[in-house]
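User: Earlier you gave me the apo prediction for this protein. Now I'd like the version with pyridoxal-5'-phosphate bound, so I can compare the two side by side. Same sequence as before, with the ligand SMILES added.
Assistant: Got it. Here's the input I'm using:
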Amino acid sequence: MTEKSYTAEQKAVAERFRHVRDRLTEACVKVGRDPAEVTLMGVTKMVPPERIAAAVNEGLSCIGENYVQEYLSKANAIPKQTECHFIGHLQTNKAKQIVGKVHMIQSVDSIRLAEIIDRLSEEKGIQTPVLVEINIGNEESKSGVSENNLMPLLEEISKLSHISVRGLMIIPPVTDSEVKKRQVFSKTHQLFIDIRDKKIHNITMQVLSMGMSADYELAVAHGSTMVRVGTAIFGDRKYPTKVQSDKV
Ligand SMILES: *Cc1c(COP(=O)(O)O)cnc(C)c1O
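And here is the structure of the complex with pyridoxal-5'-phosphate:
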């Protein structure tokens, strides 16, 4: 694909992508981090393949999808070299459709889900890399393991041999307060470091997935190694009822 052949929508995506990438690089440099340490993930829920292709053409190498059905229906149209991660809430009865089809599952938050992913991976003869999602604000409506249950969960997962924990993921509580966000990010970073230093079998802390369109620069200042950016690259999402029904 050449830039000249872009549609108006693809051109807009390409421009936004470059803008985000440049801001991310600046944010890294500002806090003395090597930009190569931080992966820019494009969050592509509700984003049609043509737009994804434009961002990939500009250098996007990793995408995140939230909904099983939507991802499976788009998977063939996503450029082959792109790393695909599952970042949405994964129902145990849908795990079968996702295990082996993505590079990483970022939303493991229960031993039940971990055991199912482990068993499905064993059947396929693979080992599935995952992140453990923490509900850092202990918000009732959110998925993610509570802070209190985090260590017990990691210890249980550590016994499973076909799933391997590579890090942590959070979706911070919605807030306009930069102070609160900083607190959440630095607390998560501290957990990441503490767990890394414990050197638990089969648990490594390589990926700290935090930061979205509104706060990725802040997240990078607090140790994020992967920012998940949707709107700032692809524009506002339209939620057709067809796809949304996959959420329930
Ligand atoms: C939608 C989503 C994002 C991206 O959100 P934006 O605000 O559009 O950048 C990141 N992470 C997860 C888990 C999401 O569901």
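For your comparison, keep in mind: The two ends are 37 Å apart (CA to CA).
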